[in-house]
Amino acid sequence: MARAQLAYVCQSCGTAHTKWAGRCGDCGAWNTLVEEQAAPPVGATGKRTGKGRPFVLETLVHSGDPPKRRTTKIAEFDRVTGGGLVPGSAVLLGGDPGVGKSTLVLQALAACANAKQTAVYISGEEALDQVRLRAARMGLASSPVQLGAATCVEDILSTLASGSAPDILAIDSIQTIWTSALEAAPGTIAQVRTGTQDLVRYAKASGTAIVLVGHVTKDGQIAGPKAVEHLVDAVLYFEGERGHHFRILRAVKNRFGATDEIGVFEMTGGGLNEVANPSALFLGDRSGLAPGAAVFAGIEGTRPLLSEIQALVSPTSYGSPRRAVVGWDSGRLAMILAVLDARAGLGISAHDVYLNVAGGLKVAEPAADLAAAAALISSFSGRPLPKDCVIFGEIALSGDVRPAAQSDARLKEAAKLGFTRALVPAGTKADGLRLERITDVKALVRSLGETGG
Q1: Burial 372-390 (b: 16+ CB within 10 A, else e)
Q2: Which of 44, 294, 355, 369 is the most exposed place for a label (fewest CB within 10 A)?
Q3: DSSP state for residue 350 in the 8-state scheme
Q4: Is 0.90 topped by the overall pTM?
């Protein structure tokens, strides 16, 4: 009998190596190579093992009908998935430990079950009584969710095959699932990949929508990761800081919807509550009296979202100025500081600079440049910004302020929350707010010197 071939597989990126090493040559991670049995080649001699079955080639013409969806009745969850779960699709939900992934999945399944859909929850980490206690605390004990505890993928598929296919199936979590076809330990790349393939194949064949819960690594990536993300139809991240009571559901991949939508939830003792107006949540405790606070009118997907950008500029006590950024790109901050020094002659770069997006929100769009620059100038000058003013716009290296997309939606959201003025790029038009159009960073400095306070 031929000896089984072995490979050393990186548990971070999935790359196979012929021999063990302390560091992965592809991703650079240390101590991640684990010995696994190599996958057998196709055919003993490398030749074709069968004739194959022909299939029909079709055209690109589509019927025009959108894909059918199974809504969970949780509006924020359905928004991020594109309107609900598509039958036969696989969704991977990742997040930090304790952020509320299991709570969100259980609430979604309970909502589906209450809407006369069959929902199955398979727990691979917690005992059934632990899941029941959580359901009782959330007031979901009477929901007709079918519950099971298993980790072997063959047992799960055999149990599902014994009855009619459920509408929605949740596996919590995919890192605990293992298959007897492999000798590798549960949680390894090979087991996670093979188990996911089997479950996705079942979803496509039966029409069941599957939600897979996944852990994340210290770098914030789903453990196991890219090998699994390529297999599923949607990848969602559930984010939140332990010190804050709200959570953000964000899509980073979605074959049936947009990848820039977010859903906002509030964590309570009875589970997760939807936040219909996130702008009011992020600005709820704002006083607007201290220098260095600017309200940014942003866009997350199709939703306008107002948040507060806070800056603190102070004299440095060290040889080199310190930079600390939370919720924004540190490289973007360095660029804004350089532009303010070179184009407006402020000299901020010689000071310590701290920048924070209030509430733990993460802002990625370039339209936040103008709000960040306004917060920096306000803190540097000691003059607070007007409390009833919102700001947005992109700053170029030349110092010019460029227009931002969907300005109408941004300004309408600001007017709805009681704001009356806005610092916007030149060319922006809107009704209901008093607009001050900014052409470059020099004009911004002049405007804040005249209107601050």
Answers
A1: bbbbbbbbbbeebbbebbb
A2: 44
A3: G
A4: no
Radius of gyration of the CA atoms of the chain, in A = 26
Ranges assigned E (strand) in 1-155: 6-10, 16-17, 33-37, 90-95, 119-123, 146-149
C-alpha distances in angstroms, 362 versus 219, 300, 315? 16, 11, 27
In whole angstroms, what is the distance from residue 345 CA to residue 445 CA? 10
| Residue 243 backbone phi and psi in degrees, to 5 | -85, -5
How far apart are the C-alpha atoms of 19 and 42, rounded to whole Å? 22
Using CA atoms, how far apart are residues 340 and 331, in angstroms rounded to an integer? 14
DSSP string, 154-202: HHHHHHHHTSPPPSEEEEE-GGG-B-TT--SPTTSHHHHHHHHHHHHHH
What are the Cα distances from residue 305, in Å, to 86, 111, 182?
27, 27, 47
The tokens describing 315, both together, are 């004299």
Residues 246-304: tens digit of each pLDDT: 888 999 899 988 887 889 998 888 899 998 888 877 786 666 678 999 999 999 888 89
Query: Cα separation of 262 and 252, whole Å?
Result: 10
Nearest to 358 by CA among 287, 324, 308: 308
Name the token pair of 331.
Answer: 């490289």
Tens of pLDDT, residue by residue over 202-217, are: 999 999 999 999 877 6
> Could you tell me if 24 and 13 are in contact, meaning their C-beta atoms sit under 8 angstroms apart?
yes
Which H or E run includes 240?
A: none
